[in-house]
Specification:
The protein has 368 residues and is of the alpha+beta class. Helices cover 43% and strands 16% of the residues. The chain contains 16 helices and 11 strands. Helix 6 packs across helix 8 and helix 6 packs across helix 9. The protein is elongated and about 85 Å long.
């Protein structure tokens, strides 16, 4: 190899009989060192997906807003050009550690991590001081377009995104996630019957709620967005609200006393599904706005609703679509309209619009 080369301290490994290397690269070098395929090229001639520009600012913001805590997983790259590894020792445990030399004329192409690469470039413009920090890069020798495309498929085909509930459970920067966890810990029924690691509940599960559903519903109750701050009043209100709701949902309490199983409730009743919790929260938010005093008593209206799935005249087209519970935004509003009526709360303009447009014509309708 000529003297015109890039030198990195590297660790050598072997997978599928082929050597690969792990190197550390300063963030300030990442934008110029690593390239990604021209987005104007046809998909069949690229080795990765097209860059989704909408994702980049979010990742860059994560880096710049958390300069002492951010963490970035390794990039994966292929070197199309001359590459040589010089081990620190010919034998012993240091034979896998040494110097990786990459020809200056080589092209280093990102196989996995192009969004991280673009975000690093954007973050550096706002916080140049992070430029001396490093990211690990797994380097493979380029063996042609077909192999690079297969590498991308292999790296991503088995990737499984964590569930929304598990992300909320582990996210300690998100104030609303913290509020949801606090509510679960503080309300006994939620504490005992909330699934914390999945956003859906199997038929055999003993759980009745999910953390993601409680998170979304509680945010609706307190009227806060993801970036909003949470104070003691919000925590107190959320706990008081859900405690009062549970007091007026006898079937939920029967699950708590083991008189009925969660599976039976999900099978037979609409209120055992997330669409009902979201609808109760939306109606509750409007109730709190209309009646700052005495709202707890109005929640007794929940007892007057026939939540049985067998009541097809009420729930078909609202909570049930083709006999199955549906949780679309429209369905949440339509279920919420039934709840608002029971609580004596007037429908909002948007709720009235959806009622007029989508409420089943041959079923229960809420008059203007």
């Amino acid at each position: 190899m000529s003297d015109n080369s890039l030198d990195f301290t590297a660790i050598r490994g072997v997978q599928a009989g082929t050597a690969y290397y792990v190197i550390m690269v300063p963030l300030k070098v990442v934008p110029t060192l690593f390239k990604f395929d021209d987005e104007s090229m046809p998909s069949e001639l690229r080795a990765q997906r097209t860059l989704n520009r909408a994702r980049v600012p979010e990742i860059a913001s994560y880096i710049t807003r958390n300069p002492t805590e951010y963490i970035l997983s390794a990039l994966c790259a292929s070197v199309d050009g001359e590459i040589a590894f010089e081990p620190a020792s010919a034998e012993g445990h240091l034979r896998g550690v040494g110097r990786l030399r990459i020809s200056m004329s080589a092209t280093i192409l990102i196989n996995d991590g192009q969004h991280r690469r673009a975000a690093i470039e954007e973050a550096l413009r706002e916080r140049p001081l992070i430029g001396d920090e490093t990211i690990s890069v797994v380097v493979f020798a380029d063996r042609g377009l077909q192999r690079c495309q297969q590498m991308f498929a292999d790296l991503n085909i088995h990737a499984v995104r964590p569930t929304r509930s598990i992300k909320l459970l582990y996210d300690h920067r998100n104030a609303l996630a913290g509020l949801a966890r606090h509510v679960v810990d503080s309300v006994p029924l939620f504490r005992d019957f909330t699934c914390m690691n999945s956003s859906s509940i199997s038929n055999r599960s003993l759980k009745l709620f999910t953390l993601s559903s409680i998170h979304q519903a509680t945010a609706e109750v307190v009227g806060k967005t993801r970036k909003g701050s949470i104070d003691d009043d919000d925590r107190s209100l959320a706990i008081c609200f859900w405690t009062a709701v549970i007091d007026n949902m006898p079937d939920w309490k029967r699950v708590g006393t083991r008189e009925v199983s969660s599976a039976e409730l999900r099978r037979d009743y609409v209120h055992a599904h997330g669409v009902a919790m979201q609808a109760i929260a939306a109606s509750g938010n409007r109730l709190l706005a209309e009646h700052r005093e005495g709202w707890e008593g109005r929640l007794r209206g929940l007892r007057t609703i026939d939540w049985s799935r067998a009541n097809r005249k009420l729930w078909d087209g609202r909570a049930l679509v083709a006999g199955k519970v549906n949780r679309s935004r429209t369905n949440v509003v339509l279920v919420g309209n039934v709840i608002s009526k029971a609580l004596g709360v007037p429908l909002s303009a948007e709720a009235r619009r959806i009622e007029d447009l989508y409420a089943p014509s041959n079923g229960y309708r809420i008059a203007s």
